[in-house]
Structures
1.
Amino acid sequence: MTDLTDKVAIVTGASRGIGRAIALLLAMQGAKVVCVARTAEELEEVALKTAGLAITADVSDEADAQHIVAETIRNFGRIDILICNAGVGSFSLLEHFTLEEWDQMFAVNVRGTFLLCKAVLPYLKAQHDGHIVGIASDVSKRTFQHGAAYGASKYAQDAVLSSLRKEVRSFGIKVTTIYPGLVDTYFNDSKPGNPDTEKTHLKPADIAQAVRYVLEAPAHVVVDELMIHPLTQEY
């Protein structure tokens, strides 16, 4: 199995939910974690727990994406892992969506993934090593009512990662996409621990363990895609 000790990992959306769980678990495995989010107060708390680096940034902004990578290199000298987890979502009938809501989802979910991947690739290619993990969604593979905008952004993110996987494999770089089902987080203004969702949803720690699984796979093993959803969720 691949040892994560001293691996340098950038985790976006690290201030809460899935990103927080991933950052904490990677730190427990000995990784040096760069925690990225837009909310400084919550981010600092996670960075303290991981003994890592906190960078307040908007992943959909090109200058911020380049800053995240530059600061990681300045502090640690390399990048081994990029976790593209930052994401936003809102749900409504298509006719009720505003252009602002549509653009925000594509900015964070798609452009954010594109910009961070683009920024780290020169370093990963120079190393002939590295692992990019995208936290997509099971709606990257299906559609549902009220999910036109969010689903479209996740289909697009999936396409970015899938295409990138084919472009970088010859450099020894792995790209894995994880498709979580329903997760008990703050996503879409919900609050974790709600009795109505606690027994029917995945926990952020479940997704973090899935990330650990793909990162710790032996060097000769490639996990391209991993679907994870609760037993209570039907398809």
Note: The CA atoms of residues 39 and 56 lie 7 Å apart.
2.
Amino acid sequence: MNERVVAPAWLDDNEGVRIVDVRDEWEYDGIGHIPGAINIPFDEFRAEEHASETGSGEGMLPGEGVFADLFGEAGISREDHVLAYDDHHGVFAARALVTALLYGHPPERLHLLDGDFSAWQLQREVSSEPPTVEPTEYEIRRPEDTPLVDAETVAEALDDENTVIVDTREEWEYEEGHIPGAVRLDWRELVDDDTRGLKPVEEMEAILDERGIVPEKRVLLYCNTARRISHTYVVLRYLGYPNVGFYEGSLTEWEADGRPIETS
């Protein structure tokens, strides 16, 4: 277990954390935000085009320059601990964190708030004042070892008994078409609707074990455009899964390449 997912009280004991609110600007300004949080709306760190159209091989990652400008303008450096949150059980915030990870921000300095803004607002103070920010020159350092996998890696794993391919979408999406042999795990199954955060560890582990998604296997994640797998990736790494692959192109790229689809 590690501090990839942290409770609100964690902020009480850790000063100097850069808090990133990925909600829309009108929510950040109009509804309020966690005190000290800087706003980087979700749409700002998503590419407008997909890898199948651009040929970039990087799905909907925004590009190094765009991401460096976003974090730099928010006053974030590579040395900073970053905590992200949204108001959708953490799925958009997780995407921001995985994007930072893929561009080389140290993983031990990336944290997802357990719960979201609605849960925070019920128990804690909120603010309508944006913090004073001193811009930085954010430095991109691509890691040598990355969880990114491409379509060919997924294809080669279809018959690998030591790998489980996981579809994190809803049941109806899975039934309409999925990568052959993929196990369905809707990302929301690991979320508690009452607390808006993660379910208890033992409960999550039981759900995963039932699907054959176990730490002993390599886990390859996909959805449609890599948003939902971001949350599942953060959770699995939080639970100590050592070998989790992130198929950024996801089913959008897989289908565009004319690869096989299985229906239920």
Note: The chain has two domains: 5-123, 151-256.
